[in-house]
Amino acid sequence: MEKKEMLFEGSSKRVYATDRESLLLLDFKDDFLDHNGAKKTRIPGKGEINADIAGFLFQYLENYHVPTHFIERNSGSELLVRKLKMIPIEVVVHNVVSAKLAQRFRLDEGQHLDFPIVEYYLKAPRLGSPQINETHAMALGYAKADDMRAMGRLASKANAILKSLFDRRGLLLVEFILEFGSAGDHVCIGDEITPDNCRIWDKRKNRKLDRERFLQDLGGAEKAYRELCDRLTRAM
Ligand code: ADP
Q1: CATH tag, 85-220
Q2: Element spanning 8, H or E
């Protein structure tokens, strides 16, 4: 498989074409950007750690028959994935009240939810990425009813599987974001599952092991990412 031209550069990854029309290479960057892209920093090695974590978690989900775009972990900071027609909706799953959810609903950060909250956001930064529901998605043509059902079902299944894996590693899967896409008529999980787009805490100390370390100036982001990767990927 040969790496071809760069197709897109986003905030956390570069996307490359390959000599196989149906496959892409995702190259995870070392950069951190804040919510509005104003603050930027570089953590050497972050891209490689994120590729390790995403590759491991996608393979883990595949083992439980949750379809993802993952093909294989390439060298460096790259993953080889199936090219998808992306659905422009982010699915956010909350298990525990994060700082942002606490602020929105005047709750205590860290409160465990009785059952997961699943939210949908339109991936449209120029519109401020508004929260939407199934009827917006279908009426405005962002996704078909079948796709919305598949996304909800796969997000809940992935959550149950990952929550239990994290729990066995002494970790709390507070919140995560999924993106989906279709290959033919088949919807699967795409993009990334990494500490850049998940909230993950150490279960006993509630210590944050994710991008919040950077956003809240807590320090030690590189060490936290490495620790998370080691704890997740160590032999079962
Ligand atoms: P963004 O700043 O848009 O979040 P990223 O840095 O995450 O961008 O760049 C990755 C881009 O590639 C995203 O737009 C994402 O939707 C897209 N993408 C992820 N996985 C796939 C895939 N399997 N096929 C096609 N596009 C994908």
Answers
A1: 3.30.470.20
A2: strand 3-9
| Residue type for position 121 | Y
Ligand 1, pocket residues at CB < 6 Å: 8, 10-13, 15, 24, 69, 81-84, 86, 179, 181, 190-191
Tokens of residue 141, six digits = 């043509």
**pTM score > 0.90 for this model?**
yes
- Evaluate if residue 236 carries a pLDDT over 70: no
Which class is domain 3-82? alpha beta
C-alpha pair distances (Å), 153 with each of 121, 141, 215 = 17, 20, 31
Q: Which of 157, 226, 234, 153 is nearest to 187 (CA)?
A: 153
Residue 140 has pLDDT above 80, yes or no: yes
Q: Which residues contact residue 35 at a Cβ distance below 8 angstroms, ignoring those fewer than 6 apart?
A: 215
For the chain, residues classed under CATH 3.30.470.20 are 85-220
Residue nearest to atom 20 of ligand 1 (CA): 191
Supply the residue whose CA is at minimum distance from atom 27 of ligand 1.
191
- Residue 200 has a pLDDT of 97
List helix spans (H) across the chain.
46-63, 99-105, 134-139, 145-168, 212-215, 221-233
Identify the residue whose C-alpha is closest to ligand 1 atom 17: 191
- Only one residue has tokens 């993950």, namely 200
Give the pairing of strands 13-18 and 3-9: antiparallel
Q: Which two tokens stand for residue 28?
A: 């995870």
Amino acid at 41: T
Task: Give start-end residues of each CATH 3.30.200.20 domain in the chain.
Answer: 3-82
